[in-house]
Amino acid sequence: MLTVIKNLLSYMRSYKLLTSLFLLALLFDLAFISLAPLSFKFIIDKAVEPRDPDYFFFILKVLVFTGVICLGMGILSDFALARLHTRVQADLHKRIFEHIQHLPISYFQKTRSGDLVAFFSIDLPAIGRVMNVLLTTGIQSFFVVIVSTVVLFYLEWSMAALILVGAFAIFIGPYLLSPRARKASEDDLQQFTQMTTELQENMKAQKVIKGYNLQAAVIEKFSSRLQLLSATGYRRHLMNQQLERIPLISLLFINLTIIGLGSYLALTGKITVGALVAFFTMYTSMGNSVFGLTFVIPALTEARVSMERISDLLAQSREANGQRISFTSDTHSQVDVQVDHVTFGYETKQPVLKEVSLGIPPGSRAAFVGSSGSGKSTLLQLLLGFYDPQLGQVKINGTSLADWNRGAYRERIGVVFQENFLFHGSIYDNIRISQPLATREDVIWAAKKAEIHEYIIGLPDGYETMVLDEGSNFSGGQRQRIAIARAILRDPPILLLDEATSALDPISEASINRTFDELAKGRTVISVTHRLAAITGYDQIFVFDQGKLVDQGSHQEMLDRDGSYKGLWEKQSGLSLSQNGQEATIDQERLSRLPFFQGVDPAVLGEISDLFQTETYAKGQAIIQEGDAGEKFYLIARGKVEITKAAPDSDSGQIRLAVLEDGDHFGEIALLENVPRTATVTALTPCVFLTLQRKVLYYILSRYPEIDAHVKRTLAQRRS
Ligand SMILES: Nc1ncnc2c1ncn2[C@@H]1O[C@H](COP(=O)(O)OP(=O)(O)OP(=O)(O)O)[C@@H](O)[C@H]1O
Fold first, then answer.
1. Nearest CA to ligand 1 atom 3
2. Mean pLDDT, residues 259-270
3. Which of 284, 319, 393, 502 is the most exposed place for a label (fewest CB within 10 A)?
4. What share of the chain is helix, strand, coil (3-state, %, to 5)?
5. What is the pLDDT of residue 719?
6. Average pLDDT over all residues of the chain
7. Contacts of the segment 287-292: beta carbons below 8 A, 24+ positions apart
8. C-alpha of residue 309 to centroid of ligand 1, in Å
9. 0.80 exceeded by the pTM?
């Protein structure tokens, strides 16, 4: 209880005047409430029994006069409390929100969103409640109990002493129960935040849930969650009921004792009738106050849990922020990036980047390429200062990023992520967010560069069109273009692109890449991409494999070197897309590099390449479902897919086996025989595939028995 009061006082510290006004007004109010019952003693003993009307009216006038003053004071205290309450709540909301904004990205990755929401939906209201209850019922009851106790001792000490013993019993029960009650509150809160996290996830996952017909499974999972929540909720309610019930039983016991003893004392003439009536009235008022106090206890227990959660949050370290260096206007276009022996892992013992060193001179264009999961995006996030390396350092213009003022540094960065968040608000505001000083013309200029202007002005509300639900009323490509417009509008000296065109169709992609080329002049551009054709003109390409930098140089230099880049390039070459991105083709040479077609006559390969069909899939769409019949082979002409398998324990969902991208293939066993698919394949970005049906392939091969045998043998070997 003391901790809660101490915390409340610290929240109210900034409002000393308002708090003093409230307490003063409350004091008047309370003085009247607690002393009014004493008037019975004077009315009965000095006016009613001696039949003295003058004295009676005198007391009545005093009562009315002080009553009116106290009523006014009571109203004043209500106003003061309302203001105090809202200001303290607003302060706490702001303080928590502000603190959350400065927490490192890693905090958000390990914290469930339900927990964050609960700070605002559960903890702050609990603090608000206890503040109200303590400052009204709490203080009032406490004050009345103290004054009444003194007056009761003055009226009749023996009965007052009995009440004190009873009061001890009233409080000792809840005191002993409170650790269990607190634990019950904590458990319930934890279950509640887990439920809200699941609920939020469920809302976002509706397409996947419906696409995979998972309704029954998620309802069942949610029901189990609700059962756990009901169990903790039941325990919490029961505890709170008991906290209120135990004092009531003690109160009943005291009532009975006092009635018996009081009447006996009056009967034997040890106290006057006036004193007895005053005693009972006073005692009743005290009893009500004690009763009021019993309501304070559950509120205190809840608030204590919430205050602990909030102070844990506020104790979380903020993002490291060097104070020394920030950009000056003359360094605007001079950003030199050095990565110096950097080792980093999200989990300290599992490095995702190992001893990476590279340099990107000012005004140059660099690309990070490599297989999925090789650490490209992670390095980009280190360049953004989202994480700090465990070993080595990232240097910007020769100074370690740790010494930069991160806010000032990031203000000079334009970044386009793979997934770009759009805020609830107009398209105009969503673009302008990167440059609050931008004029309407600037915003339109950026939108034109990002090739989204024409689309926006075609909408009924144009730039004022509202973005709903994180941008669900726009396509992935449109969202990406809005994000590109944002980055362009910022006019930054350093542009970071993380698969910035992954959601665009090939024509738009080529055209946006030309815009980026144009924008690159005088800036440092760092692009993470798996689409090598887009970066052949870059000054430097860095190739990553399993967290290591394995090759670097220009496109041509690395092709000449026959290193890992050449392998990546060859995988993607020989596949082309029509301008509209709807038709893909594969050339003979590329086909001959597929393991099971190696050594096959070029003429036959020519025939086979004509048999491939183009299939397109939207992001999130299932291409193959585990268990389905397999009759097709897939080659990714463009896009990225995820291969997953149901976990052996059906509750754990899907296990990710691999991520494949441009030039990769899957499903070749289907060319051999119709066996059920052993995994599920889902499009992570919009995808274009070249597909080959077993029946169609075998129709061709049937004309070439030798080749037929060779292909079947190689496929069978690959299967084993
Ligand atoms: N927030 C995270 N917490 C833990 N591990 C992560 C996190 N983000 C990425 N990883 C892991 O770090 C490794 C490198 O991931 P990263 O995203 O940097 O690879 P990438 O080369 O950019 O891949 P992609 O092309 O698929 O985006 C992967 O094994 C990935 O699972």
1. 346
2. 82
3. 284
4. 60, 15, 25
5. 64
6. 84
7. 287/251, 287/254, 287/255, 288/141, 288/144, 289/140, 289/141, 289/142, 289/144, 289/145, 289/148, 290/141, 290/145, 290/167, 290/170, 290/247, 290/251, 291/247, 291/248, 291/251, 292/137, 292/138, 292/140, 292/141
8. 31
9. no
